[in-house]
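Holo prediction. Input below; ligand is GLP.
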Amino acid sequence: MRVIIVESAAEVAQVAAERIARAVRERRAAGAAAVLGVATGSSPVGTYNELATMVRDGGLDMTGVRAFALDEYVGLAHEHPESYHAVIHRTVTEPLGLDPALVQVPNGLADDLDAACREYERAIADAGGVDLQLLGIGSNGHIAFNEPTSSLASRTRTKTLAAQTRDDNARFFDSLDRVPMHCLTQGIGTILDAHHLLLVATGESKADAVAAMIEGPLSSMCPASALQLHPRAAVVIDREAAQKLTLTEYYEHIEAHPLPGASAA
Ligand code: GLP
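Structure of the complex:
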């Protein structure tokens, strides 16, 4: 796992956006449009803003780029401002100028949720898989909505949200009892199929989860520790999120001495 520690949340956003832009340009140079995996939550918002600036300034062409969201609440109308359909539209599709027809979010309103999950897996496969998956991390170590004890081999499915996740996300709703109980989420196995993983985290509240993800044991108790299994996973964090790591000097030493000619993955 590549661990990139920077000084501020703004720098996390810049570094992450640059890596996403590079993935889009590389796919374009190979004659195709990239398939991005996009995350909700507050962590990636700065990254999306940076990408939007690049698109506006003409430095990044997003034509034909597809996007798949990680997850969605069950039972929230797509028009509800906190549904992930609405969040992805507001923070990703519109600012990055993506074609809405090329952006997919799991359908938490489907009559048959299991079928919707299977269709979602099929749609990702039909698109040729995800080139780069952007991720945040929950304070309990979840990725997407894969709560602790989620199978590390899981595929897109329904889940019941952990109490801590509902508490954390209550800030987006009028009250805690408005936070849905259930969700659809890409599985950890689904996420690990992406060609590149890029996780961003900022702030002290993520420090324990970040340390468990990078330096803890591989365990479903910290779903993000599954990134340890991925050959091209990068984590971009600020000093506050990095404060519980024990090998900070080593990570900084690695970044200060890149192997000449080595890929920046
Ligand atoms: C949410 C999302 C995750 C996100 C995480 C952290 O519930 N389902 O994809 O990474 O929790 O959110 P935030 O970035 O707001 O801290």
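The longest strand covers residues 196-201. That is the main takeaway for now.
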